[in-house]
Specification:
heterotrimer, A mainly alpha, B alpha+beta, C mainly alpha, B: Rossmann fold, OB fold (Dihydrolipoamide Acetyltransferase, E2P), 6-stranded mixed beta sheet, 5-stranded antiparallel beta sheet, 8 helices, 20 strands, C: mainly alpha, MetI-like fold, 13 helices
Chain lengths: 281, 353, 292
């Protein structure tokens, strides 16, 4: 009968919804748990670690310890901030100009140039790290902020050009042409008209690049020793002959991650468009 | 105020030819309309005059001076874009005043001129608003005000009415015509709407596939279209075009259509053209040719009667009270002085001697 | 017009940066791959030996063969799991709901965590004595109690895959969601009216339309899987033994443990060549989609 079919359908739908909710809860758990567990661990005393308890007396000792000698995470934090900040500050203005040129002008080798920029994203860091190591070693620039900024510029600039071009392509050109007719030079157009219209995109790109540099590991591992160590490498150093000092690692881990979570949530909506460069909307 | 000339101008992108070796002289103070369907090259032509595109070959002259190498800002032109091209982060007043700001005109003088331009388009109460707070018609007026504030040599307008709704289009059209007449500035206006062309232009350049098919006043374009394309493009409802053969001054088409033309020379395939308003409907047997009614449409001010003659369909314009049933038989009477004949192979107009 | 000169000036700084920081070292590394150069023996580059390194790697080096095997295994498992999971997650998240919004809100978090930290974090969670996942697994499946995940070659690789999937599935789900949002609704609604079940609608209408997006996702994920380095260092260190040594890690260990710069460059370039093929494929896909 009709009503039987309706009830059966409804029951099926309810079961589906239940299963769906269960899966989503599982996903939520899987995504959040490692982060929360690390946060939890950072407040534990070493003795609590083996108990795997959720209930314990929290302590801020770990955070105090990592800032003190011999770990000096404060210096590492400063290094990360300087390197990431400088990289972004240098890369973004130049990348914006280049992205504007790619977006608005016809050029003889445009496709070739653009493909080259795209292709650099596919290059594994390991193939480039050796020459840099040798170069900086010869120049005595190992373990400096300068070296890290240079290599991070390599990582970040093509990406920024790509992302910014995507944002600029979405800005209609009519206002710029109107300004040209009204009497502006091209540079004036960029300053007066384009920048005010595209600055959210620039901000998103800048944040994205900051995160990339902040989390960068391989180059920092190879090119630094003591002075210019950044956070991801610093975190691997929390060990003694006895083994890893997990509680300290966790505390440092929180230190690395919280700023990035904040930045990421700011630009959440634009994360996707960035990485796929407009290929997927 | 100056004249504008294009001398053998071409534009191509790769193998695609957008504008093919065209020449055009626009007189000082003239309202020239470039009319044609999408892709005909009209916008490209205008953008070359503006300096936003570079011609592949040929010369562009403004006021007798060759401007090919001048950037837009040195050509003393103003332009109204299809989507207005307003500056979204500036107020209406700042938008209108931007051309003056770029020229270093500041303070009280700039404010006064902004106010004057705004007054001309009735925008004064909106000077402090931003573009996103304005309606389409208001944004369009901001674009107009920004264009007139400088008293440039040439106005360029790229389909400025196409984003407005029908009613607003009619009133703004009149405003543009009035403004151009008052200011007397040479104007180049691009549109695909033939009504805009007819109502606004001193002369119309009808374009298709990168070429100007006919350059003439609206009346000439309407009454003596130079080829099949122009004939079919101008006029609403469009001109009836019937394919058939022509010999010794007589045109015949399958279905019994027969018309006497005053063209002597042409013998062979031809196309007869007659506008719906030049065709009258009469009772069967009492006209030039018999036909069966295909459809009857009331437009309010008239009745459009579509009939079938053989394989062809013709539209006649009848009095607003005229009625009949589809399928019934009628006759058509043609105004013999308003017949057009075209060579079917060259598509060109054949004129009587 | 002045634009003509300006546009090249505008690109110049960024182009110089890319040239100097990417193209140049690539070239150096390429040249080095044809030389015999061990840093332990000399500080200057050694003599040219032609393609000897490449031949050795491809025919005579068990470590390379192992790394190739590990990499291939890792990439296949990782990409398959990631793409399928991302697709499934995106399908689930398409609808609105409280749980849905919560999950959607946290999707970018894993991506914001440093991959090195992810490796360390997972090493901690799978630790034999105090790893929470070790404990959980043992609690759910009793025979697994006390199982040392990172000591077995196969499970160590799986943990590596798990850590990488944790990083990427949420992000890829966002990408697929974006792709789905761009699809027109009508074909799906028409299918429903025609009588198709939800699964049939998905299989016959949605999935075919999503294939371009999924292809892009799969290629990108393959590229990132091939490039992956940080987690190998911090999670497994290549171990147990050599069972999680990927090609990228092999380059690192040849260059900075054995200091054989020439050979390391060659292996690095073999990896790069694979990635360049993917780059070409990707570009063609993207261009086709943009033109479509």
């Amino acid at each position: 009968m009709k009503t039987d079919r309706a009830t059966a359908a409804r029951r099926r739908r309810l079961i589906m919804r239940a299963v769906e909710s269960a899966i989503l809860l599982l996903v939520l758990f899987l995504i959040l748990f490692p982060i929360l567990w690390m946060a939890l661990t950072s407040f534990k005393r070493p003795v609590d670690l083996f108990d795997l308890t959720l209930v314990f007396t929290p302590t801020l000792d770990n955070f105090r310890t990592i800032f003190a000698a011999p770990w000096n995470i404060g210096q590492t934090l400063l290094n990360s901030t300087i390197v990431a900040g400088l990289t972004v500050a240098i890369s973004i203005p130049f990348s914006t100009l280049a992205a504007y040129a790619f977006s608005r002008f016809e050029m003889r080798f445009k496709h070739a140039l653009f493909f080259t920029i795209l292709a650099t994203q596919f290059i594994p860091a390991v193939v480039v790290v050796l020459p840099f190591y040798l170069l900086f070693r010869d120049l005595g620039l190992l373990d400096t902020h300068f070296a890290l900024v240079i290599v991070n510029l390599a990582i970040v600039t093509p990406f920024a050009v790509w992302m910014l071009k995507g944002f600029l392509d979405a800005v209609p050109t009519e206002s710029e042409e109107a300004a040209l007719v009204d009497g502006a030079t091209r540079l004036r157009v960029i300053l007066d008209i384009v920048v005010p219209m595209v600055w959210p995109g620039v901000l998103v790109t800048a944040v994205f690049c900051f995160i990339l540099t902040w989390n960068e590991f391989l180059f920092a591992l190879i090119l630094t020793r003591d002075d210019a160590v950044t956070l991801p490498v610093g975190i691997t150093r929390f060990r003694t002959e006895r083994g890893d000092l997990w509680e300290l690692i966790a505390a440092a881990g929180i230190l690395i991650s919280i700023p990035m979570f904040l930045l990421a949530s700011v630009i959440q909506r634009h994360f996707v468009r960035g990485m796929t460069g407009g290929a997927v909307k | 105020m100056a004249d504008v000339a294009l001398r053998r101008v071409s534009k191509n992108w790769g193998s695609f030819v957008a504008v093919r070796d065209q020449s055009l002289e626009i007189r000082d103070g003239e309202f020239m309309v470039l009319l044609g369907p999408s892709g005909c090259g009209k916008t490209t032509t205008m953008r070359m005059i503006a300096g936003l595109e570079e011609p592949s070959s040929g010369d562009i002259l403004i006021g007798g001076q060759r401007v090919n190498d001048l950037p837009p800002r040195d050509r003393d032109i103003a332009m109204v874009f299809q989507s207005y091209g307003l500056y979204p982060h500036m107020t209406v007043a700042e938008n209108i005043g931007y051309p003056l700001k770029l020229r270093g005109i500041k303070g009280a003088e700039r404010d006064a001129r902004v106010r004057a331009a705004a007054a001309k388009v009735e925008l004064e109460p909106l000077l402090a608003r931003r573009p996103k707070e304005l309606s389409g018609g208001q944004r369009q007026r901001v674009a107009l005000a920004r264009a007139i504030i400088r008293r440039p040599t040439v106005f360029l307008m790229d389909e400025p009415l196409s984003n407005l709704d029908a009613k607003l289009r009619v009133s703004t059209r009149a405003e543009i015509k009035h403004l151009q007449h008052e200011l007397g500035v040479t104007t180049v206006y691009v549109t695909h709407d033939q009504i805009e062309a007819m109502t606004l232009a001193h002369r119309v350049a009808v374009m298709n596939h990168g070429e100007i098919r006919q350059l003439a006043t609206p009346e000439v374009i309407y009454d003596r279209p130079a080829d099949l394309f122009v004939a079919g493009f101008i006029g609403s409802p469009p001109m009836n075009l019937v394919a058939g053969t022509h010999e010794e001054g007589v045109f015949t088409a399958p279905g019994g259509l027969r018309a006497v033309t005053r063209v002597a020379r042409h013998a062979g395939r031809a196309v007869l053209g007659i506008r719906p308003e030049d065709v009258t409907v009469a009772p069967a047997g009492a006209g030039d040719v018999d036909a069966a009614i295909y459809a009857v449409e009331l437009t309010g001010d008239a009745v459009l009667v579509t009939v079938r003659i053989g394989e062809a369909r013709l539209i006649a314009k009848a009095d607003r009270t005229w009625r009949a049933e589809p399928g019934s038989a009628v006759a058509l009477r043609f105004d013999a002085t308003r017949l057009h004949l075209f060579d079917a192979d060259t598509t060109k107009r054949l004129n009587p001697e | 017009m002045q634009d003509r000169r300006l546009k090249y000036l505008l690109i110049l700084p960024a182009a110089l940066i890319v040239l100097g920081t990417t193209i140049w070292p690539l070239a150096i590394s390429f040249v080095t791959s044809f030389r015999d150069w061990r840093l332990t023996r000399s500080l200057t580059p050694g003599p040219f030996i032609g393609a000897e390194h490449y031949v050795t790697a491809l025919t005579d080096d068990p470590d390379f063969a192992n790394a190739l095997r590990v990499t291939a295994l890792f990439v296949v498992i990782d990409v398959t799991i990631t793409v399928v999971s991302a697709l499934g997650l995106a399908v689930l998240l398409r609808r609105a709901g409280v749980l849905h919004s919560m999950v959607r809100a946290v999707l970018i978090l894993p991506f914001a965590v440093s991959p090195a930290l992810v490796g360390i974090s997972f090493r901690f969670m799978f630790n034999a004595e105090m790893g929470v996942f070790t404990w959980l697994a043992g609690a759910i499946v009793p025979p697994l109690q006390g199982f040392v995940w990172l000591a077995e070659p196969s499970t160590a690789l799986l943990v590596l895959v798990f850590s990488d999937a944790w990083r990427w599935v949420p992000y890829m789900a966002l990408v697929v969601l974006g792709g789905m949002a761009a699809l027109p609704r009508e074909p799906e609604e028409a299918a429903r009216i025609d009588g198709a079940s939800e699964w049939q609608v998905f299989r016959d209408v949605t999935l075919p339309a999503l294939l371009p997006v999924l292809a892009i996702v799969a290629i990108l994920k393959t590229v990132f899987a091939l490039k992956m380095f940080d987690q190998v260092v911090t999670l497994t260190g290549g171990g147990p033994g050599q069972s999680t040594v990927t090609l990228a890690y092999l380059v690192y260990s040849i260059a900075f443990r054995w200091y054989d710069m020439g050979y390391a460059s060659a292996v690095a370039w073999i990896l790069t060549a694979m990635l360049m093929l993917l780059a070409v494929w990707y570009t063609r896909l993207v261009l086709r989609k943009a033109g479509a």
